[in-house]
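Readers outside the structure-tokenisation community will struggle with the description of the input data as it stands. For illustration, here is how one protein appears when written out as sequence plus structure tokens:
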Amino acid sequence: MAVAITLTWNGFSALATVYDSDGSSTNVQFIHDTLVQNGDTITIPAGTFAWATRVNISKAVQLQGAGVGQTIILDAVQNDRLLGIGLVAGNLTRITGIEFRDGGRVKVQGAPNGIIRVDGSNTDGSQFRWDNCKWDNLNGNPVIDTVIGVIDHNQVLFGNRVNEWIYPYGSRWNGGSWGDGSWAAPANWGSPEFLFFEDNTIICSNTRIEGAITDCFGGARMVFRHNAVVGADIGNHGTESPGRSRSSRAMDIYLNQFSCNNVNRYAGSNRGGGELYHDNTVTNCWGNPNTLNTLSAFRMLTAFSVWGGADGTNGWDKNNLNNPFYSGTAASAGSLTVTIAADSGETYHSSLEIVS
């Protein structure tokens, strides 16, 4: 059944149509391919539906279920994605009101392909929203690449099948590859140029190994705020083990509630790129209570293809031409501090971040 709805916005009217599917992947795909236009909605009714074939979304539609606990999609796809989404320039694509559960996928579908994959652009005005859904221990991970949008008001349960939830990328930022474009551009902290995670409840059920909510790659830019997290931390990869791909570019993490559940040592870690980490409430970490976040530089420990090791001779690791910013003689050292005696007789205290 199709229902036409007239929407009025800023004085302009647009005709949007709601198409009711029968809940099967084949019917949703048929409606998408033959009926809907940008701005239309495909509904999935209440009930439990096993999807054994991938659904591809290449139009700016709203895929709308009847709500968590009402519309349940079981991932029964093998050796392929459950859902592939290509965002449309100047338009919003949305997933809402659906509970996703495992339906018997045998082989894990992780990065870079993803069990659900969303591909966008930061330059064409495309946007994405994934809200008011539930992710219940699927055997794979979502991959979100170069997407401007928000993932909000979701319930996320993982840890039974995989120990990481989602992989944000920014590999095509400003039309580049491998995240190079993202690294060549300013971070623009505080701007809308991020993938936002807001007001989600995220629980890792693995009580033996710490879980990771995110594992960011390839110039990823994300904001993580107002979320409640149990047993999982924020993580990323550096410009090292992923090969040619760069590290994440910028992570802004604030006003969250992290409970390490006495499994995690810390609530966040950073292997590359800039990070703002502030105003979070962190409890039940078993490490040093002051160690809420860690910094790591793995190329200082070993060489990785393509980049090699950071041994002081690598051409990728050139010093700033203005260095050193200050030179002096160390007079004494303490716990994470060094006292430097200047020529004038004054004493400077410099706090050090330990990077491993």
In short: Residues 327 and 334 are 19 Å apart (CA to CA). Confidence is low (pLDDT under 50) at residues 6-13, 344-356. The chain is about 5% helix and 40% strand. The longest helix spans residues 25-34.
